[in-house]
Design goal:
The complex is a heterodimer of chains A (190) and B (781). Chain A has 190 residues and is an all-alpha fold. Chain A contains seven helices and no strands. In chain A, helix 2 runs antiparallel to helix 3 and helix 4 runs parallel beside helix 6. Chain A is flat, with a radius of gyration of 20 Å. Among the domains of chain B are: 88 residues, Penicillin-binding protein 1b domain (Penicillin-binding protein 1b fold, 2-Layer Sandwich), CATH 3.30.2060.10; 183 residues, Penicillin binding protein transpeptidase fold; 101 residues, Beta-lactamase (3-Layer(aba) Sandwich), CATH 3.40.710; 63 residues, no CATH class. Classes of the chains: A mainly alpha (190), B alpha+beta (781).
C-alpha cells in the first residue's frame, strides 16, 4: 500500500513540475526516465513509460507478466495546443505570410520556437512556411520533427503527416506522398 | 656698363636659382601634401565608410510563464543600463517593488519589427513572470527587452568598438568638447595658430609642455596614427593633415569621427576608443542616456585618460569634471544653476566589476566567421549593419565563472600537471542549434587563436556514443545485446600492432551494450566498432554533422580523431536534439541600415538518424549519468533533473572532455594544456566538473525524449543484459526496445517476479561497490 502512496505522490509531483506551457495536461504518461537521486537520498520510485499508473488498491503483482506480450495500447494524448505567447507569435507570422513577408514570418516563428521548442504545432507551422518558401526538403524535416514531438497525439500527427505528404508531392514523389497522406487520414479518424 | 651687366648677370643667375629653388620646394611641399593627403584621407574615409556592424545579444522575452524572477529581471535591467527611479516615466528607467516591476522599455529596431518604447508592468510569482501588462492595464502576450550590445565588429577585418551615429550623440557632447578643447572649431581651418602661440607661451614660461594647442582635428589625426612623439616634424605633419581634413570634409563629419575615435581609457588589455564604448565602460549605459555631469566627466577624461582615470584617481577626475562644468557655464553652453547642481553630484562611475559593454572576443570571432561564410561579402561591406546574435549574456557569465572556478581549483590542487590549465565551454539550445555561450579560455581575451573553434584535440571516449549509434542503426544491436570486453591485438595496415586496454586494465568479458557505454569500456567498444565496420562508424560522424568523416582507422573507435570543441558540439547537438541535425548558429539575423533583413540562413532541421536508434542511445547516455562515468555530476544537480552525457579522455590524460545535455541546454567542456602536455585529469575529474558546476547553476529542464511508437521500455539486468523484474533485483535498468523483440529472461529474477519482501521499493541500484567509475583514456598507438 505504501508503494501505491509513493507512486501517487510521485505522479502528483511530476504533474507539479510541468513547465507552465507544457502542452499536455497532467494525464500524460509519467516521465519515462529512472531518476536516481544522489547517493543516500533513499529509494526513488520510477515508472517506466509503458506501465500505466496503477489504480488504487492494485499491487504490482497484478500487472500481467511482461513475458506474455500483447500489442500494448498506447496512451492517448490530447491534441497539442499553443501557449499564449506562441499563439500571439503564430498569428503575427501568419499576418506576415499573408503580406508576403516570408523571412519576417520565419523570424516570428523562430521566436515562438525558442519559447516552446518542443511544441509540434510550431514545427508544423514552420514547415508550412517552408512550403511557401519552396524549401520542400526542410518542410518535410519540420514535419518529421513534429512527429517526434507528438507521440500519442493523433490529431497533431495527422497534421504532420499531411505536411510531409504535401512536401513529397511538391517534389513529384507521388507514391511516397500517397503513403504519407494515407497515414494522415488514418490518424485523423482516431 | 660691362660691370653692371656682369652684376646684373649674377643677379639674374641668383634670381633664376632662387626661382628654381622655390619651385623645387613648392614641388616637394606639394608632393608631401599629396602623400599626407592620401594617408589621412584614406584613414578618414576608411573609418567613415566602414561603419562597423553592431552585434546584439539575444533579447529577453517577456511573457507570462517565462522562468525569470523579479530579482534576476531587475539585475538584467541594471545590466542593460536601466535606471532605478521612483517614477519610471521615460525610456530606460524602472522601479521594483517586491514582486512587481514597472519598466519603461526603450524603443528598438529588431530584425522583424520596430518595437516602440512602452511602459510595462510585470508581476512575478517566485521564479516566473506571472503577468505582463501595458500602461492601460491590458495583458501583453509577448514582448521583449531591448537587447544588450555586445560589440561592434568589422565583418571583413576585425575590430571591436561601439561606433555611434550623430543621432545617438547627445547634442551637449560636441558643444562641451568645443567649449573645452577647441573653441574655434567651427571657424578655424584645421589648426588654430593663436592657440598654438598661446600654448607655446605657457610652455616656455613653465619650462615644460603643459598645454596643448591642438584642435579637435589635430587630436583626431594624432589618434589615427597612434604616434605620441612630440617632435616638431610630427607636429608639422599633423598640422598639415589637419588642414587637409578640414578642407576636404564637413565639420560635422570630423566631429563625428572624433567622437568615435578618441582614446578614453584602458580596460585591461583593451584600449577604449570612442565615446560610445567609453560610455559603456564608465557608466554601463548608452551614450544617448548620459546626463550633464556624466558628459562633463567624459570631456574631462579626454585630456588624460590615465591621469584623470575616475576609478584610480577619483579626486583628480572630480576636480577636472567640475572645472569642465564651470567652463560650460562660463561659455553659456549650460545654465550656471545646472552646472552648479551637477558639480555637487558624485562621479557616478560604475564599480570595477562593470566591463566596457561586454567583452566576448571568442564569441564575436565566431560571429565574424559565420557572417563571412553565410552571407554575401558585398552585403557585409555595407555600412551600419545590425547583427542579431544568439549569445545569452547571463549564461555566458555563468559559463565563464564555472570554468574559472574549476581551473583555479586545479591551480590550487598542488599537482604540477594541473597548474595553468586552459579550458573551453560551449553551450547551445539544442532544438534551435543556437550557441548561447562560448568561452575560449580562462582569460576572456585571446590573440587570434580561438580554442573553441581552432584547438583540435583527440576526443577520446566522446567517440563511443557514435560507435554505439552506428551499431543500433544496423538493427542488429539493442541496449541489451551482449558484446565482448576481451583483449584485442590488432595488426594495423602500416604494420604496427594495436593493443588497447581498459582504464583499470581489467577485462570484463561478456557485457551488455548499455554497460559497455556507461562504464566506457574500451575493449567492448572496439569489439562493437569492428563488427559494425569502420566505414559505417565514420559515416555516423558525418550524419551527425561533422563536415569531413574521420579516417577509418581502428583507433578512431576510441576517439583518436582530432576535433575542435565546436565540432564536438555540433555532433552532440544532434544527439541532444532527438537525432535532428541543426547547423549551429551564432547569428539569427542581419539587417542593413534601413532595417531591411539580409538574405540569411534560416533555422534548419534534418533527420540524421532513425528515431529508434537515437532514442535507445539517448536513454543509455542518461544511464551514463545515473550509474556510469557521469555519476559524480549528480552531487551538483537537482535530484529530479534528468540529464545525459559522455566523458572523454585522450591518451596519457592530455585532454579531458565532457559533453552532456538537459532538455534545454547542451554543454561541451574541454580542459587541457595548450602545449598538449598531460593533465592528470580524466573526463570525469576535468570536463565533467566544469560541466556540472555550470549545469547546476542555471535554470534548465529535464531531458525527456519521447518514446517512439514502435518501441517499449523493458527492465533488463545491467550486468547480464537479461530481462528481469524491477521488483526483485537491485541492478534492473529500464531501457527501450523495438516492440516484441526477444530478450533472454533472467534466471534468478525473471520478468514478472516479485520480491518476497513487502515494503520499500529497492530502486535502481548503482554499481554495487560504490566506486566511482573513471573514464578510460583512448589508448591510441
Amino acid at each position: 500500500m505504501s508503494r501505491v502512496l509513493i507512486l501517487a505522490a510521485s505522479l502528483a509531483l511530476s504533474a507539479c513540475t510541468l513547465p507552465p506551457f507544457e502542452r499536455t495536461p497532467p494525464e500524460r504518461p509519467a516521465p519515462p526516465a529512472p531518476k536516481p537521486g544522489p547517493s543516500g537520498s533513499g529509494p526513488v520510485l520510477t515508472v517506466p513509460p509503458d506501465v500505466t499508473p496503477l489504480p488504487p488498491g492494485q499491487t504490482p503483482s497484478e500487472i500481467p507478466p511482461p513475458t506474455t506480450r500483447v500489442p500494448k495500447e498506447r496512451p492517448r494524448v490530447p491534441p497539442a495546443t499553443l501557449s499564449a505567447p506562441s499563439k500571439a507569435l503564430v498569428s503575427q507570422a501568419q499576418a506576415q505570410r499573408r503580406k508576403g513577408d516570408l523571412p519576417g514570418a520565419s523570424v516570428s516563428l523562430e521566436r515562438a520556437l525558442r519559447i516552446e521548442p518542443g511544441n509540434p504545432l510550431l514545427w508544423i507551422e514552420m514547415g508550412r512556411l517552408r512550403m511557401d518558401q519552396r524549401n520542400y526538403p526542410q518542410a518535410e524535416s519540420m514535419g518529421r520533427k513534429a512527429l517526434s514531438t507528438s507521440v500519442g497525439d493523433s490529431t497533431t500527427q495527422s497534421a504532420a503527416w499531411q505536411l510531409i505528404a504535401d512536401s513529397l508531392k511538391a517534389r513529384g514523389k507521388n507514391p511516397q506522398a500517397e503513403e504519407a497522406a494515407q497515414k494522415a487520414r488514418e490518424l485523423s479518424t482516431y | 656698363m660691362a660691370r653692371r651687366r656682369r652684376r646684373s648677370g649674377t643677379r639674374r643667375q641668383l634670381e633664376r636659382g632662387f626661382v628654381v629653388l622655390t619651385l623645387l620646394l613648392v614641388v616637394a611641399a606639394l608632393v608631401l601634401v599629396l602623400v599626407l593627403d592620401r594617408r589621412v584621407t584614406a584613414q578618414f574615409e576608411g573609418r567613415r565608410w566602414t561603419l562597423p556592424a553592431r552585434v546584439y545579444a539575444q533579447p529577453i522575452d517577456l511573457y507570462s510563464g517565462q522562468q525569470l524572477s523579479a530579482k534576476r529581471f531587475a539585475a538584467e535591467l541594471e545590466r542593460l543600463g536601466y535606471l532605478a527611479v521612483a517614477k519610471p516615466d521615460r525610456p530606460g528607467t524602472y522601479r521594483r517593488r517586491g514582486d512587481e516591476v514597472s519598466v519603461h522599455v526603450r524603443e528598438f529596431r529588431f530584425a522583424d519589427e520596430l518595437q516602440p518604447a512602452r511602459a510595462l508592468r510585470l508581476r512575478f510569482a517566485g521564479e516566473a513572470i506571472e503577468s505582463v501588462q501595458d500602461a492601460s492595464g491590458s495583458e501583453v502576450p509577448v514582448t521583449r527587452l531591448d537587447p544588450m550590445l555586445i560589440g561592434s565588429i568589422f565583418p571583413i577585418h576585425g575590430e571591436d568598438r561601439i561606433v555611434v551615429s550623430p543621432a545617438e550623440v547627445p547634442p551637449l557632447l560636441p558643444e562641451a568638447l568645443k567649449a573645452v578643447e577647441d573653441r574655434k572649431f567651427e571657424t578655424h581651418r584645421g589648426v588654430n595658430p593663436l592657440a598654438i602661440l598661446r600654448a607655446l607661451f605657457v610652455n616656455v614660461r613653465a619650462g615644460q609642455i603643459e598645454q596643448g594647442g591642438s584642435t579637435l582635428t589635430q587630436q583626431l589625426v594624432k589618434s589615427y596614427f597612434l604616434d605620441s612623439r612630440r617632435t616638431f616634424r610630427r607636429k608639422a605633419e599633423e598640422a598639415v593633415m589637419a588642414m587637409i581634413l578640414d578642407a576636404r570634409f564637413e565639420k560635422a563629419d570630423i566631429m563625428n569621427a572624433y567622437i568615435n575615435e578618441i582614446y578614453l581609457g584602458q580596460d585591461g588589455q583593451r584600449a577604449v576608443h570612442g565615446f560610445g564604448l567609453a560610455s559603456q565602460f564608465y557608466f554601463g549605459k548608452p551614450l544617448a542616456e548620459l546626463n550633464l555631469e556624466e558628459i562633463a566627466l567624459m570631456v574631462a577624461i579626454v585630456r588624460g585618460p590615465s591621469y584623470y582615470d575616475p576609478r584610480r584617481h577619483p579626486e583628480r577626475a572630480l576636480e577636472r569634471r567640475n572645472l569642465v562644468l564651470r567652463v560650460l557655464a562660463d561659455q553659456g553652453v549650460v545654465g550656471a544653476d545646472a552646472a552648479e547642481r551637477a558639480s555637487k553630484r558624485p562621479l557616478g562611475v560604475g564599480e570595477g566589476g562593470r566591463r566596457a559593454g561586454s567583452f566576448f572576443p571568442a564569441f564575436l570571432d565566431l560571429v565574424r566567421r559565420q557572417l563571412r561564410s553565410d552571407y554575401e561579402e558585398s552585403d557585409l561591406t555595407e555600412a551600419g549593419l545590425t547583427v542579431f546574435a544568439t549569445l545569452d549574456p547571463l549564461l555566458q557569465e555563468k559559463a565563464e565563472l564555472a570554468l574559472a572556478e574549476e581551473l583555479e581549483r586545479h591551480d590550487k590542487s598542488g599537482r604540477k600537471a594541473a597548474k595553468g590549465l586552459e579550458g573551453v565551454v560551449v553551450v547551445t539550445t539544442p532544438q534551435t542549434g543556437e550557441i548561447v555561450a562560448l568561452v575560449g579560455g580562462r582569460r576572456a581575451s585571446f590573440d587570434g587563436f580561438n580554442r573553441a573553434l581552432d584547438a583540435r584535440r583527440p576526443i577520446g571516449s566522446l567517440a563511443k556514443p557514435l560507435v554505439y549509434l552506428a551499431a543500433l542503426e544496423t538493427g542488429r544491436y539493442t541496449p541489451a545485446t551482449v558484446v565482448d570486453d576481451a583483449p584485442i591485438d590488432l595488426k594495423l595496415p602500416n604494420g604496427d600492432r594495436w593493443k588497447p586496454g581498459n582504464f583499470d586494465k581489467k577485462v570484463r568479458g561478456p557485457v551488455p551494450l548499455v554497460r559497455a557505454l556507461t562504464q566506457s569500456l574500451n575493449l567492448a567498444t572496439v569489439d562493437v566498432g569492428l563488427d559494425v565496420g569502420l566505414g559505417r562508424v565514420a559515416k555516423t560522424f558525418e550524419q551527425l554533422g561533422l563536415e569531413e568523416a574521420p579516417s577509418e582507422l581502428p583507433s578512431m573507435l576510441l576517439g583518436a580523431t582530432n576535433l575542435s570543441p565546436f565540432e564536438v558540439t555540433q555532433l552532440y547537438n544532434t544527439l541532444a536534439n532527438g537525432g535532428f541535425r541543426s547547423p549551429l548558429r551564432a547569428v539569427r539575423a542581419v539587417v542593413d541600415e534601413e532595417g531591411k533583413a539580409l538574405k540569411a540562413p534560416e533555422l534548419e532541421v534534418t533527420e540524421a538518424s532513425s528515431p529508434e536508434a537515437i532514442y535507445a542511445l539517448d536513454r543509455m547516455l542518461i544511464e551514463v549519468m545515473n550509474r556510469g562515468t557521469g555519476r559524480p555530476a549528480r552531487q551538483s544537480l537537482p535530484p529530479e533533473l534528468v540529464v545525459a552525457g559522455k566523458t572523454g579522455t585522450s591518451n596519457d590524460y592530455r585532454d579531458s572532455w565532457f559533453a552532456g545535455f538537459s532538455g534545454a541546454h547542451l554543454v561541451v567542456a574541454w580542459v587541457g594544456h595548450d602545449d598538449n602536455s598531460p593533465t592528470g585529469l580524466t573526463g570525469t575529474t576535468g570536463g565533467l566538473a566544469v560541466w556540472s558546476r555550470l549545469m547546476g547553476s542555471i535554470v534548465t529542464s529535464s531531458f525527456e525524449p519521447m518514446l517512439p511508437d514502435s518501441m517499449e521500455h523493458r527492465w533488463i539486468d545491467y550486468y547480464t543484459g537479461r530481462e528481469t523484474s524491477p521488483y526483485c533485483n537491485g541492478s534492473a535498468v529500464s531501457l527501450p526496445f523495438v516492440e516484441g523483440v526477444w530478450l533472454e529472461p533472467s534466471i534468478e529474477c525473471p520478468p514478472g517476479a516479485v520480491e518476497p519482501v513487502e515494503g520499500a521499493y529497492p530502486g535502481p541500484a548503482m554499481v554495487p561497490d560504490g566506486t566511482v567509475i573513471q573514464d578510460a583514456p583512448a589508448q591510441v598507438p
